[in-house]
Design goal:
Elements (H helix, E strand, L loop, with lengths): L3 H10 L5 H7 L11 H11 L37 H6 L8 E6 L4 E6 L6
Antiparallel strand pairs: 1-2
Helix pairs in contact: 1-3
Length: 120
């Protein structure tokens, strides 16, 4: 993500384009491909020399960091329960890694136990 004078120069050079295209060209895109507009606008304001207070509004207090882990999820209409990238990254989980799902009805919890290569 561009910041400071590099951000201002790039934004000026693309000033005839839509805002979304400018933000993308300046690198304000999250890992999922989602445009990080708030971070882009905040960086532009700071690049212009304005000192902004730390952002504490909004859910999770993420500020200019994009989506943050909320430790909440919901069952989707198709019955799937999504854990999400923020959690798998925090746990150091890798694509293709396999787990045994253990349901604990008495506590309402679900446990994921990593499978070893020899486990079935």
């Amino acid at each position: 993500m561009l910041v400071g004078s590099a951000l201002l120069d790039k934004a000026r050079s693309l000033s005839n384009r839509p805002e979304d295209q400018i933000a993308r060209a300046c690198g304000y895109v999250g890992p999922s491909g989602r445009l990080l507009k708030k971070s882009f606008y905040r960086a532009l304001v700071e690049a212009k020399g304005y000192v902004l207070p730390a952002s504490s509004s909004g859910g999770g207090g993420g500020g200019a960091k994009g989506r943050q882990a909320e430790f909440r999820t919901r069952v989707h209409g198709n019955g799937n329960l999504l854990i999400g990238n923020a959690y798998t990254r925090r746990m150091g989980l890798e694509p293709g890694q396999e787990f045994r799902i253990e349901l604990h009805k008495e506590t309402g919890s679900i446990w994921l136990s990593p499978l070893e290569a020899s486990d079935d």
